[in-house]
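Technical appendix A lists one of the benchmark inputs used to test multi-chain prediction within the project. The record comprises two sequence entries:
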Amino acid sequence: MNVVIINYGAGNIKSIQFAFNRLGVNAVLSSNAEEITSADKIIFPGVGEASTAMHKLKESGLITLIPNLKQPVLGICLGMQLLCNSTEEGNTKGLGVFNTDVKRFSNKVKVPQMGWNIIKNLKSDLFTGVKENEYMYLVHSYYAEHCKQTIATTDYDINYASALQHNNFFGVQFHPEKSSLAGERILENFLKLDIKQK
Amino acid sequence: MLTKRIIPCLDIKNGRTVKGVNFVDLRDAGDPVELAKQYADLGADELVFLDISATLEGRATTLDMVLHVAEQVNIPFTVGGGISSIEDVDALLQCGADKVSINSSAVKRPELINELSNKFGSQCIVVAIDAKEIGNQWKVHLAGGSIPTDIDLFEWAKEVEQRGAGEILFTSMNHDGTKNGFANEALAKLSEALNIPIIASGGAGNVRHFIDTFKIGKADAALAASVFHFGEIRIPELKKQLKNNNIEVRL
């Protein structure tokens, strides 16, 4: 299994690499187009500010490569948000894979949402063996609005999409690499996915 | 619902846990990695490592420890102690720390909070505040509580939030070590004045204290050290009791 974690200088990606190591898989950090397109599975991570991250994707030319990938891609946290149409953070245009927009939580709640919250309404092979209302670790100030591609929801401020899927593209708002055994199960499921777009 | 977090805190010196830990199943109680794994298995929601190494060599060893914790532990963790620059934070995050906690260095140069949150994102910047109630005023203290300042806790906390901190770890020096409960009045005031999560620290002695700090103190998370290390409070039992008292926790 050839797993590549896209390395575009956005945040702490070591923990994702370590999480795969714990599953016995060596995931490679790479920003090389050839290496990324030839991978079996691709992780699109991201921590930090959206417009800065998008700028880094532009600079590295990955902005056109990512939406055209054919193998299973898993966007995590900001990675998922950047796969949406747009985000209010820094008024940023996204990669448009997921047909939804990213908004900021209101000030009725503490922002960022930080800690463990429930994921529910699970519908995807990504969640095989994960029970409804399982806890995941989340840290974020912006959320993806519901859409047809929603495969999990979470309540904080409002009910929002905590996971999305479109064809071979998956996105999770939570951090499976930091979400104990249930998170590990999701990463395992992702490794087992057998989808290849033409 | 977002759950309340239980956070054991480990003191680290030269890459080893200190202050003694009394866990039955541990082969090596001084090994932070083994202890961290144990806490993760017991249901701790996060971990905090406080580096109290006095030398550069000690800090380098801590960095190595952080790497090993990140390799083996599947819950988030924060590292604090002696952090005063972008380079310090970069090194810790590169080794796999999820968040860093700054304290005295932020008081000495508040712009550091802006610089760090701009560069790394506010989600990974925790500002720790040690304060002591003198008369009826809460005053911020530096260097592990040894140096008093004239800075008001609530004003400083507000400034910390405005400068981009993602979270505040508030330790009451009046309560720390007493095992008489957390500083719930001050905590509630902080929680109401601010829009970022507040971690309560100092004073944990029994399960009731945790219930109170979430209900009365309105804390988002509670941190403790010795009651966990010496098995006086077991985390699974604590979380069950919290749940029984209608406090949302991850079980």
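Chain A touches chain B at residues 11-12, 14-15, 18-19, 21-22, 47-49, 107, 110-118, 135, 137, 139-141, 155-156, 175, 177-181, 183-184 (CB under 8 Å). Chain A has a mean pLDDT of 94. Comparable benchmark entries are summarised in Table A2.
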